Request: fold
Amino acid sequence: MGKSNRVLGHYDKPMWESISRKKWELQFCPDGGKFRYPPAPIDPDTLSDVYEWRPITGTGEILSWVIFHRKYFDDHPPPYNSIAVRLDEGPIVVSQLVGPEPEGSWIGHRVEVVYGEHEGYVIPHMRLIG
Reply:
């Protein structure tokens, strides 16, 4: 697969570089003591412009989920899923669940990051823990 023309901004480039190394990092505000996502120039709670990049565990809990049965993107043939995950560090991210799917509701199931590839880029996906 060839790489597409993906444009990275100043604040999200370090995150995607960490993901490409399969060591996901997010911005951390030392003043507020919290991780934040998406990457931004200031912390929305403290309004501090001081931040550092720290690794995350990559584990969390499914907050919401959906299975799409209609084709919206050429590179995502249906059915495919999207999940909202609250990371153990606090931020909420949207990803896809890969591997076995839970029976019934997915909400509350624990997940961990696994790395896949899409159009030549490393992408974080989630899988069930245990």
Remarks:
- Residues 25 and 56 are 6 Å apart (CA to CA).
